[in-house]
Automatic annotation (TrEMBL):
Heme c 1 binds at C45, C48, H49, M89. InterPro entries: Cyt_c-like_dom (IPR009056), Cyt_c-like_dom_sf (IPR036909), Cytochrome_c4-like (IPR024167), Cytochrome_c_Oxidase_Subunit (IPR050597). This is Cytochrome c553. GO terms for molecular function: electron transfer activity; heme binding; iron ion binding. It comes from the Bacteria.
Length: 223
């Protein structure tokens, strides 16, 4: 009896997997198509975020390759509902359906991020200050270590704390400014807004330069 039960269950599980497989690859195909060719009224993501999703450091556009898929969906939702505003990205996010957001986020999450960090021409003294802020914070200013939430290498932790290593410095600074001015309000419990509001312009420049000098590491959805 038990043997037959196990066999039936095994068979059921196996057929379930076979049934599921085309669904998974169809989702990735749809995500890939959106990313590289765009969709109805939607520009290809690659035209701004790069063919490999590596971002555009000079323009301050973020890397998407290797970011957590659920985090990206949350950001697309925020950009669409206005709790995060950006004139370039908001209209694109709004025109994506819920399914398209999932498909395209899944596609970029599975791409390998570039191994060379965007970096930039930054004074060693500034980088040194950035590293201290990132790893230890500045208690007199009430700034906690960024790595306590974003991971020891800035690689991100799960869907809540994004990877910030290997992102263009200008992009990271723009986000800090957005929290300071209130144009980005989508962070859970205002966690990031309270950090951003304590950073001076010099410290923001230093800490973002340091994270931009680190190589990106994939932040897998299952972490
Ligand atoms: C016209 C240029 C442009 C195109 C095309 C574009 N994006 Fe963006 N995207 C941006 C900019 C600029 C930002 C940063 C916004 C900011 O500074 O807050 C961004 C941010 C994002 C973010 C947030 C990343 C993070 O780490 O928080 C995601 C996710 C994203 N884009 C996904 C996409 C997807 C998916 C597509 C294609 C369907 C796409 N983008 C097409 C310009 C673009
Ligand atoms: C208490 C936890 C915490 C600390 C400490 C913290 N962050 Fe964050 N940070 C977050 C959360 C949560 C988010 C995601 C917000 C969201 O969901 O939109 C975030 C997002 C960000 C983003 C936006 C990334 C993107 O692509 O969307 C940047 C940039 C950032 N943090 C920089 C920093 C820097 C620099 C420091 C240190 C000075 C720091 N953070 C310290 C919690 C934290």
């Amino acid at each position: 009896m038990r043997g037959r039960y196990r066999f039936t269950c095994g068979l059921f599980g196996f057929s379930f997997l076979i049934l599921l497989m085309p669904t998974i690859s169809a989702a990735n195909e749809a995500g890939k198509k959106l990313a590289l060719q765009g969709g109805e009224g939607v520009q290809p993501c690659s035209s701004c975020h790069g063919a490999q999703g590596g971002g555009n450091a000079a323009a301050g556009w973020p890397r998407l390759a290797g970011l957590n898929a659920d985090y990206m969906v949350q950001q697309l939702n925020a950009l669409a509902n206005g709790t995060r505003s950006n004139p370039l990205m908001a209209p694109i996010a709004s025109s994506l359906s819920e399914q398209q957001r999932k498909d395209v986020a899944e596609y970029f999450a599975n791409l390998t991020p570039p191994t060379t960090p965007p970096g930039g021409d930054v004074d060693q003294k500034i980088l040194k200050r950035g590293k201290v802020l990132a790893q230890r914070g500045d208690w007199q200013q009430g700034i906690p270590a960024c790595t306590s939430c974003h991971g020891l290498k800035g690689q991100g932790v799960g869907a809540a704390f994004p990877s910030i290593a290997g992102q263009p410095a200008m992009y990271l600074q723009n986000q800090i400014k957005a929290w300071q001015s209130g144009s980005r309000q989508n962070d859970p419990n205002g966690l990031m807004a309270s950090v951003a509001k304590r950073l001076s312009d010099e410290d923001s420049q230093a800490v973002t330069a340091w994270f931009a000098s680190l190589p990106a590491e994939p932040s897998k959805s299952d972490q």
